[in-house]
Amino acid sequence: MQEKIKNVLRQTEETLNRWTSAKWYKRLSITTGVFWNLALLLAIILVAGGVFAASVGAGYFASLVDEEKLRTPDEMRGEIYSYEETSEMFFDNDVYIGKIRTDLERKETQLDKVSKKALDAVLATEDEYFLEHDGIVPKAILRGLFQDVSNSDSQTGGSTLTQQLIKNQILTNEVSYERKAKEILLAMRLEKFMTKDEIMEAYLNIIPYGRNSSGANIAGIETAANGIFNVPASELNLPQAAFIAGIPKAPFRYTPYSSTGDLKEPEGLQPGIDRMKTVLFRMKETGYITEDEYNQALAYDIVKDFRTDEQRSYEKYPYITVELEKRASRLIMDVLAEKDGIDPASLKENDKLYEEYAILADRAVRSNGYRIHSTINKEMYDAQEKAKNAYNKYGTTLTVASVNKEGEEEMKELPVQVGSMTIENKTGRILSFVGGRDHDIEKLNHATQAYRSIGSTVKPLLVYGPAIEFGAIGAGSPVVDVKFKVNDNGKAWEPANFIPTSEQGIMPARDALAQSQNLPALRLYGQIKEKMPINYLINAGFSKVVESENYNASAALGGGIEGSVEELTSGYATLANGGKKIEPFMIQRIEDADGNVLYEHKAEEKEVYTPQTAYIVTDMLRDVFETDRGTANRANGLLEFEADFAGKTGTTQETRDVWLVGYNPNVTMSVWLGYDQEKYSLDNFRNTNIQPSTRANQLWASLMNTAYETNPDLIGTKETFKAPEGVVTRSFCSISGLAPGGGCSSGSLVASDLFNKNVMVPKKADDSLTSGSYTTVDGSRYLALDSTPREFVTSGGSGVSQAFIDRMLAPFGGDASKLFPGDSRFSKVVSGASLKHDGVAPASVSASISGTTITWSDSPSSDIVGYRVYRSGGGSLASISESRRNSFKVPGSGSYYVVAVDITGKQSSASNTVSVAEAKPKPAPKKEKEKDTEKEKPDTPPADEPEETPEEPAEPEEPTETPEEPTEPEEPEDPADEPAEPAEPTEPEEPTEP
Fold it and tell me: Residue range 593-616: average pLDDT?
């Protein structure tokens, strides 16, 4: 055996020797050696090249990230969690309104509030190895790099969830190797100090998801779930989760909504549905769902789940949204300033600082996820909006020229606008408001941002309230409604009442206020002006009012006094609160995204009027609603409930604005109507529209009725205003305001009303009255002269002294004869004024006759007290006072003439003569009947024989004229049926309003 083996080895060796000695072997050996050496050399080159490439790559990578500073864990966390969250608004009682306007809507959520199906869909689609890798997947990076270098059509991407988080929150979307290198570096670093759950939660809150059903851009899975499917992220089913997980790859391609929030057409929805199917397939391939779940999800009709009913808060509640944004920003300004150690009060003094914090606050309100809780009652606001829209008598909508943003002229609609506000008196809470007719037409909030002349609504706040506070008057004290002329800022001004011919003489203050007479308010303001009553308006919160307006005489009527609906409502709420000013507010509190309270309203009180003054003014203003002549009587009659209401109306110059404000112990509500451009009057188109004041009455009642329907206990309170200690009832002489005494003791001249005993009660006995006789000239009363014919003199009245006249007409003077007009309640009182006569006989008149009634013209003389009628050839037939009609029925045939008589007793020359012809005799009876008639002796004279008449028939008794109390007309069925409200005459540029 051994020999065999040896033989084999020997033969092999021989064969090998033979081959190696051959020439071909020698050549092969050389070639093999060459290749081996080349292989060794190539290996060395490849290793060296690899090391070199790696070194170069590392160096290049290092150069790409060279400028990237080393971020601390806290810095990186801060940047990761710096995503914006949309702030939200709420009605009272935490009723949701909507989101603040912003470019991107987002609501933060926690990982445990996201459906597991949604988490699985995200992992299967975006990062299969998320739970295993350390921030990057190298092979995915190399694959992406190769696809990029080779310009491959298939781009699978190589970013993990961690990398996407870095790209969105720390870096940018720039496409470059530098950004990618930084992304890789920071992703690996982030994984060192953030857990997988933290990274996933942050990713789900920052990733964009296209648009929601209102058309808003959205980010974050909670916002997407609600905005697309109207469910929270925790309740997403499998198809919904797959649809949402697929959107981030191409948000605006895969979102089901257009930029307007409309659902796309089927062809527009298909890309998103196809993407959902891809996500479902990946979930099946990666084992997150079974085959059956996959098939069921594919068959699911996802389109039926798409939300279609969402509106942005700005679209549904534009006035509320804008107002809360504005107010929240102003409050957050102070919060931020105080946080930075800056006194918030200094913001008002430093314009640059104010502007800086205004920008910061606006940014914070829109992006910090605040929860803004308002005082607005949703039911009341919605009801008043409905009532506002239902009212159809606002007036004519004008079409006016306007310049658009491009500088082109275009025609624009200009409707009558409205502003209203309802405030809870005791708290200052703004319960509801009406910002305007249509926000699309005019975005100005007419309840909070529009400042207009407040007209006669200023009278209780600037005139009567301060006058009572200063002890100038009580509720029923006499004031003077007589015209005068005054120099107002260098201009001659002769103001008048709303009805130009109205002069009621001496009248109670409460009547003057209820009827909104201008002249008494002006005279009263003139008496107290030096005590700076303007400060009461300033303290009541009228921000545009300055002290210099105090010396503007027309301020008593609202001239130069501007305010917003909110300010006016708050001013009257001050009266309702017993004189205490409680600042109105619309935001109760502001919380941050974690529920921490950043701001909470704290009510502060400030006394503007004493409780006694506030109550007395309130009692006077009750008459505005309750009496027949009160200017808000119509509104009171339209209310569907009863409450203790007081308030005031107002109309500005040329009826450019009309107001009505009313309050009870619980709430105050104001209504304003007018055109946005103040040059247009509401009183145009009288044949088409009802009176502006009537519109304000109707709309106020409608809004108050709707408020009552939503909260009858608050609005329809049975509580009444109670007189505080210090308010007393006292008797006084109604023409002087002094205590009853002397000639004023008669019952007809003694009145009683409310006084603030702390500052004024009638104590000095009246000594103004004496007995007196008077005559009338041109409708006015004057003291009769000794020579005045007795038939033209009225006796038994009372006269007043010149001292009384001077006191009552101060400070502006006026015609004393108008103090006690014949139709006033003081018809038996004579002013004591003496008529300046011309001392010559009066001018004659002309006469005419119709039948037996003679009439004549007025004498042109200015001192005529009456006329006498004479029969030619006979004596005087009658004496007719000039205050009566110029006519007399003569007793029969004859010639007659008339003379004028002046206050001194002088007569004019005779007028032309007029005649009444004698009656023609009756025909004689026939002879055959004479015998029969002769037997009858008539007991009366023949028909052609005139009856005996007295030379001067007794003058009929002059009737005592009493003022006619006008009754409130019924609501006209047609606007044209209602009489037009007379225009108010005023001195140019100075408003006089009721």
Answer: 95
DSSP 814-833: --GGGSS-TTSTTTTEE---
Neighbours of 36 (CB within 10 A): 10
Neighbours of 246 (CB within 10 A): 25
Instruction: Give me the mean pLDDT over the 955-965 stretch.
Output: 36
Span 346-373, average pLDDT: 91
Cβ neighbors of 575 (< 8 A, separation 6 or more) are 460, 461, 465, 609, 614, 617, 618, 621, 646, 663
Q: 3-state class of 756 per DSSP? A: strand
Residue 240 contacts by C-beta under 8 Å, 6 or more apart in sequence?
225, 228, 229, 231, 302, 305
Q: Give the three-class secondary structure for 478.
A: strand
Quote the CA–CA distance of 1 and 4 in Å, as a whole number.
Answer: 5
Supply the pLDDT for residue 9.
65
Q: Rounded distance, CA 658 to CA 694, Å?
A: 9
* Other Cβ atoms within 10 Å of 831 Cβ, number: 29
- Cα–Cα distance measured from residue 459 to residue 283, given in angstroms and rounded to the nearest whole number: 76
Residue 905 CA to residue 160 CA, distance in Å, equals 118
Look at phi and psi of residue 162 and say left if phi exceeds 0, alpha if psi is from -120 to 50, else beta: alpha
- CA-to-CA distance for 376 and 95, rounded, in angstroms? 10
> Per-residue pLDDT for 24 more than 80?
no
Q: For residue 540, what are its two tokens?
A: 């009541």
Q: Quote the pLDDT of residue 310.
A: 77
Write down the mean pLDDT value for the chain: 85
d(CA 397, CA 675): 9
State mean pLDDT over 448-460: 97
Within a 10 A sphere around the Cβ of 423, how many other Cβ atoms? 28
Residue 552, both tokens: 């503007």
Q: What share of the chain is helix, strand, coil (3-state, %, to 5)?
A: 40, 20, 40
d(CA 143, CA 954): 129
